[in-house]
Amino acid sequence: MPTATASQTIGPYWHLMEDPSWADLTRFGAAGEKITLTGAVLDGDGKPCADACVEIWQPDPPASDSFPGFGRSNTDSAGVYRFTTVKPGPVPARGNAQQAPHIAICVLSRGLMRGLVTRAYFEGDRLNDTDPLLMSIEEPARRATLIARPAGSGTWRMDVRLQGEGETVFLDV
User: Fold this and answer.
1) How many other CB atoms are found less than 10 A from the CB of residue 5?
2) Quick check: 122 pLDDT over 60?
3) Total of domains in the chain
């Protein structure tokens, strides 16, 4: 009978966070509207998680030689992550519906045995009002935890609260 092995909260790839180029999804010359997605990862008491890993994936634009569609960033002493990427467009949903432009986010950190997955939607996008996932969240205050807000020219901010009051909505994937 096989022997169970110990779980790791992030695995053997922690060193990839130390290379800041992984947080720049435009590093290979991606075309499109360049944006910065930033925010803080906060614990249940609202204190920064200074040793978290944040990963993002984008369904749009499609991954290519010039756009990897995936990035990874560590958080600094204030719990802040930062990505340079291309602003996504809408993507198909079931039937004739469209998903609003969004970026998938996964947070890995000490004490989490599985990454916590959420999404960042963009405040003011017309498709937010009909996005199937956003509309499945009945409470407006909970839905608002998935909305990135403008924070300067070309910069969007979305904080991720791991638990407690104002906890970010996480997806069961």
Assistant:
1) 6
2) yes
3) 1
